[in-house]
UniProtKB/TrEMBL annotation:
Protein name, per record: Uncharacterized protein
Domain of life: Eukaryota
Amino acid sequence: MDRHKWRSLHHVLRRTSHPINLYLNSLHPLEDRARSCYDSPIPLPSPDFLLMLLLDGCFLLELFRGSAGEGFKSLGYSRHDPIFAMRGTMHSLQRDMIMLENQIPLFILNRLYGLQLNQPDQTGLVARLAIRFFNPLIPTDEPLRSRDRSKLQLDPAFDPLSDTGLHCLDVFRQSLLRTGIQPAPRPWLKRWSNNRRCIADKRRQQLIHCVSELWEAGVKFKKRKTDRFWDIKFHNGVLKIPRLLIHDGTRSLFLNLIAFEQCHMDSKKDITSYVVFMDNLINSADDVGYLHYCGIIEHWLGNDDEVAELFNKLCQEVVFDINDSYLSGLSDQVNRYYNHRWNAWRASLKHNYFSNPWAIISLVAAVVLLVLTFAQTFYSVYGYYWPRS
């Protein structure tokens, strides 16, 4: 991609009439701060490191601007450009740019974009461009509409103008959780679980039973109408889960969001909690099939087995504490409902005897026959001991 990165830089320089030294000199004061963002020292001399930031940053900004509304033609690219005009290539680039190892510090992108706009100290504009660029990766069938995007900066839980994001992946994650997740506080469990953080396996990360077991216990599943895929509710035996659209980019999206939450100490594990919860629900293709029947899961993969395998492998070797999950309180409610014997008996009666009209007719006939047999026995005994005079 180096050739295309140089092309994008030449487009920027020609469009803005700026010399390249303007950008390199402006990035120089930020060099130490940028180097500290990486997990290991970068063995590049200062000129090469700054040039790398400039090339990658300008390439990313051109992608953002061209796909977010301005259009690549207005930026000076041909409608036959092999990178900036091909939709298939754009989908591949979106998946590459969301990867944790491909992130560029947000303050570098803000400085480069500010120089192009002759506003070097601007903040927030890159964050909004990034949200629009990565919008097709949102795992719902209702991505953010234009009017919803305009409301993001007004949401107290997420304000792109606050310049609090570390990089574009962080910004996109904040936009996914834009309404904020407020789990019920359980301080005693928090203190008790501080020493129980461990590598998650099926025993330690068990939040909830799988779909098949919950269905047998009488739990109903319904689709919740919201574009916040993580916003799960449970009330009166009904587990309401927002619709989840799974496509070829979903695995990469969740993997990188989980990786970010694992690597960033100050980040909450909200995406990890959601994926672990769904992993618990989905143990087999039958679980996926039933969620699809309920309208909760829609996927573009080969079959239901691939969806089950996707969730079952997402959280391998993940450090996770079930008591620090925003879904732990909801899971407790579901588990209490599951453990109540009357709910299981009622569900068994419904599944076995009221599942179809013929079963209902058979049950009614059996009850009538039992009542008639009881009445015949009663009158036979009654007539024997108290015969008519």
